[in-house]
Amino acid sequence: MYKDVWRKMLSKEIKYKHSKSSLDKHPSLRPKMRAMLLDWLMEVCESYTLHRQTFYLAQDFFDRYMLSQSDVQKDQLQLIGITALFISSKIEEIYPPKITELAFVSDGACLEEEILQMELIMLKALNWDLCPETVLSWMKLYIQIASLYDVTNLLVPQFSQETYIQITQVLGTRSYGKHTFLKITASKFALSGEVFVLHTGLKWEAIETCVNWMAPFMETMMCYESAQLREFGQVPSEDRHNIQTHVDYLCMLVNAQEKQSKSLEPLFPPTPPSSAEKPS
Predict the structure, then answer these.
(1) Could you tell me which residues come within 8 angstroms of residue 145 by beta carbon, excluding any fewer than 6 positions away?
(2) CATH of 135-277, one of 1.10.472.10, 1.10.1740.10, 1.10.645.10, 3.40.50.1010
(3) DSSP string computed for 39-54
(4) For a tag on the chain, would you pick the N or C end, based on fewer CB atoms within 10 A?
(5) Are the CB atoms for 67 and 19 separated by under 8 Å?
(6) Residue 111 to residues 38, 91, 118, Cα–Cα distance (Å)
(7) Which pTM does this prediction carry?
C-alpha cells in the first residue's frame, strides 16, 4: 500500500506542471507583487483559521493559472488570488469561508459575482486538475518518515509539532519567491545529511546545489524568534500546528535576499531533481 501511495505522489509530479518563470509571460508584473499577494492570502487564512494545506493549494492554483495565461494585469491579481483560495478552501476545509466573507476581506476590490466568474475561468484553465501534491505534502511525508517509531501506523503523525512549524516557517519565506520545488530540501534543514539521504532515497549530489541556495533563507530564520505553537478556539490541540499563521515573511524575504546577493550562489532557483531520480 505504501509503495502505491509513493508512486501516486511521484506521478503527480509529472502531471501537474510548474515553472519558475510563470511570471515571465506577464510583462507588467513583478515578483514582489506575487509576494505581496501571498502575504495577504496568508493573513486571510489566519483570520478564518484555515489550514496550511489550504494556503499552499491556493498558491499552487494561482501559479498554474498564471502559467496558463499571458499578459495578466496587476489589477487582476487580487481577484485571481482570492478565487484560488475560494476553490482550495472548498476542497480542504469542513467549513470554508462564504463567498460574501472573501469579498468582504478584499475591501471592495473583488465582488461576489467576479469571484464566481473567475472561479469558472480558473477551473477551466486548470483543466479541473485540483489535487496536486503541494510543498507541504512532501514536507510532511519526509518528516513523518524521519520521525517514524511505529511502522504499523505510518499514516498517524509521529513528528514534533514544534519541528513542523519551524520548517513551515522556512517554506513560508521561500514560497514568496519564484516557484521552486522545495518538497525535499526544506526538510533537509531539520535532519542530518545522512538521515535525509536515507529517508528520501536521493543522493546528496542531487540536492546539494538547492540546499546551498536555500542556506541564506535558513540563516535569516535563525535571526528571528522561533515560531511558536498557538491556540485556536475551536481547533483541537493535536491539529493546531496545521493552521496557517501569518508572520512578517516579506521582511524576512528581503533580509534573506540580501544575504543571498552577497554569496556566490545564483539568485535563481536551481533545477530540481527530476521524478526519475527519485526511487520508484
Answers:
(1) 199
(2) 1.10.472.10
(3) HHHHHHHHHTT-BHHH
(4) N
(5) yes
(6) 19, 21, 11
(7) 0.76
